[in-house]
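Hey, quick one: can you model this chain's 3D structure?
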Amino acid sequence: MMHATWNALIRGAPDKDLFTLLLHVCSALLACVGLIVVGLPNWESWPFLLISALLHTVYIICLMRAYEGGQLAVSYLLMRGLAPLIVCVVSTPLLGETPSLMAWLGIAFILLGVLTIASITGRSISEVIRHPSGKAALLNAIIIAAYTVVDGQGARVSQNPVGYVLTLALFEPLIILTHQLRRRHTVVLTYFKLHWRLGFLGAAVATSAYSIVLWAMTQAPIVVVAAMRESSVIFAVLIGSLWFKEGRLRVGLIAASSMAIGVALIKS
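Sure thing. Here's the predicted structure for all 268 residues.
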């Protein structure tokens, strides 16, 4: 629910680029305070942190595009529904975590949910994917799968998953923030002054949500946690239909429920 909520804040922002940047800058500021309390992760995890920070930079850019002209339910379901499927497929060669027969059945249900997404807007799946927001969401599914695997391993060797998340949050926005300040520093600073409260709210929710996820990955197989976190698609459909009035709630819930069943099967 927390993950779907901060994505909804981006979807509802008039300027999605600046709000996405603001949210991640606020996350970095919160991380500075948090690291004083929890400390830095082990040095063995820093190569994972640096790789993940680069992946998250691309993720932030794609996130801006995915909700620009797109719908929360469609873009969110594509990003979050496909990511655990990709993690499940690559988990055997990369992590040595062999998916079970039930996990593969779960993949089938996730795919069914993805194929149902298009009917929310009345467009074919090819039209959804060809749309710029659909392309960004599809690319982000790959990026999410990549940083999930990297961060799962990094959190395990860090011996401090919360410290790992906070250090990552500190590095995430640096490249994009530097670029945006060079291009339009007055606009960026003015926007931050006006919307910093909402930015910190979204940052607190986002950082807390990912801290829970990475802690869970130190306790359970990465593929299981990656799948279970995507139960958030149901909340995204509810928020998209009830808050943003995006489309047919019944069809959206069918798609989200199919994905949730797939998640449960992968977990088993």
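One thing worth noting: The mean pLDDT is 84.
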